[in-house]
Amino acid sequence: MATTPILLHGILLICLLCAAALASASQTDLAGRDGLRALRIDPGAAPRIDGMLDDAVWQRAPAFTAFHKHAPRDGAHLPIGLATEVRLVVDDDALVFGIRARDPQPGLLRGTLARRDKVGLDQDFIGIWIDPVGHGRSAQFVRINTAGVVTDGMHRAEDDETDLGPDFPIEAAVRLLPDGYSMEVRWPLSNLRFPYMGGRNWQMMVERSIPHADGALLVSAPFRIDALSHLSFLHQVEDMEATVAAVRDRAFLELRPELTVRRERASVPGERTRGRQAGLGLEINARPRADWVFNATLNPDYSQVEIDEPVSQGAGNIAFSLPEKRGFFLESADVLGLPLAAFYSRTINDPEYGLRATWRAAHADSTAMSLRDEPGGLVLRGQPYGTLEYLQPRRTVASLWRGRWHGDGWLLGGFASQRDYHAFGSNDVLGADAQWRGEGADGVQRQATLVAMHSRTDAGFDADGRQMRQARRSGSYLSGKFIHSSERWWNEFVVEAVGPGFVNDNGFVPQAGIVKASAELNRILGNHTLGPLPLYELEAHLGLHQTRTLADSVSGQPGGEIIDSKLRPGFWMAAPLQTGVWAQLGFDRQRARPGGELHEVPALHFGLETTPAPWISRIAAEVSLGRQLDVDADRVGPGGNATLDVGLRFPLRRGWALELDHHVYRAWVRGTLDQPAFSDTAWRWLALLHFSPRDSIRLLAQNTWAARRDDGVTQLPAWNDRQIHRSLLYRYQWRHGRIVSFGVVDDKLPLVDERSRSLTFKLQWEV
């Protein structure tokens, strides 16, 4: 399939979509919404952040009390006595919120010490959502539970996704009272991004979680369940104009030096090695005025990134599947709201240095970055039936630019990316995207998104995985998505075509040379009962999916070959105890290799998520049982896969808390000899002892096993693999950006008698 027509057709569709968007875009009148009113104060009058609400300024600030019950959707009224009041004062440095949450049963409040970003609906918390641009496309948010633990991040309306990567310098304090609790939250203006001039009024929402009231969630801005994004229902923050005018010219500068010292020991049969290394790194964040932000990073060490997976030897061990927690990549996460194929920060392994600039205006924004990446990362190249992995043996330079223009109901974007391998070639990508969103007179909401990209690549690898310059090859990528939402339906349709020659080494393209289409149809059935059990929400589901190959003259891959096909009817329901249950019947087909048999793989897929007790933060299970495809053997056998996650939280004496998370995974396919022909098992146990919101000890134990045995048919060679990881990390943070940590890591491959151990000390200091 020629790649140029794909790109031309994609650009034509984008132009048509933009014309329709501009013709139908209408202004949304927000002036009639009642919102939170800000009281502007002198810097010397700012309240002390102690959670008490006894400063004189709180008596003058107007109170907001118009909260609405958003969940559960059981039709019942909220119990009496759960009133919530919010006040807001603003000076030239920060927004300061004062919250009074009343509760006639304070002994039932749930909130213990936990990791950052682990505040969920199983805990009592106050959430604050702020859109300082006012266009409803993204919002920064924080959630603070009654123990002072913070969850924060960014929410994007384009894909209705939440990114928990950003950590904002929030200062919060909570006081437990005989009739509930009070809270003060200080949010520095230096960490809120808004246009220099011409922007809309700031928008905001406050939420309150009350788990003991059957998981009640109260919101200050009521929004419909069928909304494409709840950000469109945020209401204005009144009387902010003077503050914005006063601080838009203020400059902010942050310097974050870091020191990392590591000692390592490794052993393989017949050889032992030892090593020591010390490194200095620096991050620079500068905001000369409201609409510009500049970031730089020099020699960062990512071995102690805040994740729950084993990371022992720096960023090279960070898996592609993990969420981004490295600060340099999070500054303009809202601007880089692109599909996964366009840019994926985990492709950057271990930068020697990086530079970034971000600009935001009322109707446009843009970001550009360039990084020099050290060797050791993975280069992924998609194929129709899998993903090829190559080791990045030399330094590379990764660069990209992204710009967007947006208005009421529409967005246009451009994208350029390059991965420069110097003497071994490069990978260059250009792209464009568009989105339109509108609501009809009948209340039905619709959203359409198109993305088109084109790549040219002359950097390649030979059959042995060695890097080489190859003949230049081009390829294109085109995707379209349409969402239809109403009170009774939520439907999504996606078509994606990835040309055989399309490569994006700054992104993540797991498959190339394919075209796939999918449809998700969901009928919203409302409240029901199942015997004595009330069902707050019930949905019927039908999923359709198919992936086919595109013809490739270079590899000889024929076109039109079905790779996989899925037909999945099912249901989802919500019940008491914050319980969700879903099940699907899978009438699926899969092909393991080019020209191979298209196998029937019917299976039952189901899952459960619940919070049955105050000390259980979450129980989640997903199971598939039925016929499973053994890809290496190209045969089908009885089997399945199962995942179980259990989180426990226990308050201890002296204000300490114990947090336990358990994860178990098992996948298997049985052979003809009454034993698994293939099995894959993983077990992880994570324990954290919290002494305060600032310091904790983390113990992580993880074992993985994978094995192949004789299946009685294919005579594949048997093999066995086992990995063991143990790590202990102490971390103390006495204020935002000032952290000291000490970690011990022990990794083993017992079947081949290999072992590596390391001690790491790290100090970060924000100036």
Give the key terms:
single chain; disordered N terminus; 3 helices; mainly beta; 13-stranded mixed sheet; 767 residues; 24-stranded antiparallel beta barrel
Walkthrough of the structure:
- 4% of the residues lie in helices and 55% in strands.
- By secondary structure, the chain is mainly β.
- The strands form 4 sheets. The protein has a 24-stranded antiparallel beta barrel.
- The chain is globular.
- Residues 1-33 and 310-319 have low confidence and may be disordered.
How would you summarize this macromolecular structure in one to three sentences?
This protein is mainly beta and 767 residues long.
* Number of beta strands: 43
How far apart are the termini?
Answer: 55 Å
Mean pLDDT: 88
Helix percentage: under 10%
Strand content: over 45%
- Uncertain parts: 1-33, 310-319
Largest sheet: 24 strands, antiparallel, barrel
Shape designation:
globular
Task: Tell me the Rg in angstroms.
Answer: 27 Å
Number of helices, counting only DSSP H or I runs of 4 residues or more: 3
Structural class: mainly beta
Annotate the secondary structure layout.
Layout: H1 3-24, E1 36-40, H2 57-60, E2 68-71, E3 84-90, E4 94-102, E5 125-131, E6 138-145, E7 150-156, E8 161-163, E9 171-177, E10 180-188, E11 203-210, E12 216-219, E13 235-238, H3 241-247, E14 252-268, E15 271-289, E16 292-298, E17 351-360, E18 364-373, E19 378-383, E20 386-391, E21 396-407, E22 410-420, E23 426-439, E24 445-461, E25 467-485, E26 489-498, E27 514-524, E28 528-530, E29 533-535, E30 537-549, E31 562-575, E32 579-586, E33 589-591, E34 598-600, E35 603-610, E36 616-630, E37 635-651, E38 657-670, E39 676-690, E40 695-708, E41 719-735, E42 738-749, E43 754-764
Parallel strand pairs: 1-3, 1-13
Antiparallel strand pairs: 2-12, 3-4, 4-10, 5-6, 5-11, 6-7, 7-8, 9-10, 11-12, 11-13, 14-15, 14-43, 15-16, 16-17, 17-18, 18-21, 19-20, 21-22, 22-23, 23-24, 24-25, 25-26, 26-27, 27-30, 28-29, 30-31, 31-32, 31-33, 32-35, 33-34, 35-36, 36-37, 37-38, 38-39, 39-40, 40-41, 41-42, 42-43
